[in-house]
Amino acid sequence: MKAELKGIHSPDADLTDSADVLSVDTLLVQLMIGPQDAPGEESFDIVVCTPERHARAGDARGPEPDEYTLVLDRIDLALIRRYIENFLRDLERPTWEELATEISRIGKWEFQDYRPHPGEVE
């Protein structure tokens, strides 16, 4: 089974704007990824930031985690898309759960910490 990027969304910016380069130094991006050529998608969240913003991460607020962070010279939607599509290109696993677990190395999977309630049928 392979995965494909089905959409990109941000609660912090309008990514449908014609400008591919955004004038911010950090942005939460939700990647909608699902099985290739099949219905369905799940969210994988990453923080995209510039090197300058990344260097300031340990300022007065204290350190920020590097996990799920993509550092780019500029917040450029084409670069983000290319990075994710290149990551997914050669990734193949027998099941969606195994595939999603592998994708969660770069983005926080919406079901990553999910544990069924005792007695709940999976």
UniProtKB/TrEMBL annotation:
It comes from the Bacteria. This is Immunity protein 8 of polymorphic toxin system. It comes from Nocardia stercoris.
